[in-house]
Amino acid sequence: DLFDELKQFQFDSDTASITIYLDSEKNKETNKESEKYILLSIVSSIVNNFNLWKKEEKLSENTYLRKFAEIVETLFKKTNLFIKDGENLCEASRRMQIIHEDESDIELCSLEFKKGNASYTTLLYQQSKNFRINACILNELHLLTLEENISIAYLDFSGLNAYISQIFKMDDKFVAHQVGKVIMIKHLLELEILRETMLNLFRWKGSLVSNSHVVSLAYVKQRNRFTLVDISNTLGQSSRLSPPHHIKPAKIYMSPGNSGKRTRTVFEQDD
Predict the structure, then answer these.
(1) Which domain holds residue 256?
(2) Please, which residues have CB within 8 angstroms of residue 108's CB and are 6 or more apart in sequence?
(3) pTM reported for the whole predicted model
(4) Which range in 98-107, 175-184, 248-257 is most confidently predicted, on average pLDDT?
């Protein structure tokens, strides 16, 4: 296990030894797109950012987004997922979109980034806004795929810390609840925390890939259906493949805390 091996560096005064170890392990990997190589690359990237986080209080939202984007680009190797970033939602927040890449470029989830010293009021406001953005994305996926069991996992960042929320539809209401955390560590002493972070990131990737496959199948079915329609029925019609939009205002509910409650999430799917 990589993180068991990394424990030997936990009390080092600098990152020189762990960097040499990670580079050595990466060089041993012949398949540069394997999950092990991707994991080693992401851990290396996180360790290399330690010096940057020493001036964390001076950094902008865009810096957090840019550094996480580097991780996500590595994480999404050999998938049809890509990121679109840089949109300003407001003065105190930046947004990243995860996109299903084909001719449709369907958005699969939205992430938000705030500075670590953002006020509690700002964090609550942006959390609520991101809930609603992802509810609209989920509604679009329902309309496109006709799959009512789809859920979305997305992230909200405050500085180096993020929680992963899952949003799903139940009885015409959108319900969101926390399913995990992602912490971009800034000290070797926190290496044990990084184990959980990486596990959650790969699970998040898995849920996105699963939804991406559902979207791909939906587009294939729609193309076939439109191909078989008599041309006389399509004259004057739009060639757009997506279904008509009937968007209703999203009613979103944050589920209660987990004490005394156990639910199965997209992060607990069977291997």
Answers:
(1) 2-215+248-268
(2) 81, 98, 99, 100, 137, 141, 152, 208, 211, 212, 215
(3) 0.82
(4) 175-184
